[in-house]
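We modelled the chain as a single entity of 292 amino acids. Its sequence is:
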Amino acid sequence: MTIALSDAAANTSRLYNGLVRLTRDPMGAIGLVLVVLLVLSAVFAGLLAPFDPAAIDVPSKLQPPSWTHWLGTDQLGRDVLSRALYGGRIALGVALVSTGLAVGIGMVLGMIAGFGPRWLDNIIVLAFDTVRAYPVIILALAVGPIFGAGITTVVGILVATSVPYYGRIVRTSVISASKSEYVEALMAMGMSRTRIVARHILPNIIGPILILASMDIPTFIAAEAGLSFLGVGVKPPTSSWGLILDDGYKFIRQTPWLVVAGSVPLILATLGFTFLGEALRDVFDPKLRKEV
């Protein structure tokens, strides 16, 4: 019991020290602030949005920014600020769900390929290479019309194209770890491969994978916006930054504020998660810390 409490205290102390170093890093602090603001605006979009994002008011269409509509209105008279806030909820939700599923499935397949029989490894690697051969946009344009536009289709496309990326990284890490002396000793003692992977290999690779995933979240956010812009993502009247950009592109001569409302959140989200991911990597990955 004493040893367990001591280990828990040590882990808490390391986490606290890491958070302190994160806030002292200017890039990490900026990224943390941007990410927190994005998350809060998405969670409390219902309270922050001044209007219903789907409410149509044709007489008020294409109005410029004012005290009533801070970011103006679109071609249907909908408040752009409200749509941008709810669009953040869609972007963040799709990115987190897609990242979680891609990391989870990729880690399972990567560990099976790296520590399983050779024939199974070859099959999984062949599947990875086949999927990675198709760019996200090309696959989306091919699959989107078959399954129909929607959040489920977007998540499915993002997960399918990202699983091979994480799977290959995990596979390489598992193969490298499986050749170490302590793993060979555990196998000689009769420990099962499943237990070796779960108790001795997985804890050593999950940290870097999660840090890498945090840096890939803006990629998922941008991909969701891009697919919605192309018409194979979120369907109207659901709010999405990509749909706002699509409307802004159609009426860019009359309403430049629509392009700003759709692009600025994307830029801030990309900067926030990228800065935070870089800082987390430097703080929590001992091999990549700045002070080493």
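As a brief sanity check on the tokenised model: The chain has one domain: 2-288. Confidence is low (pLDDT under 50) at residues 1-8, 288-292.
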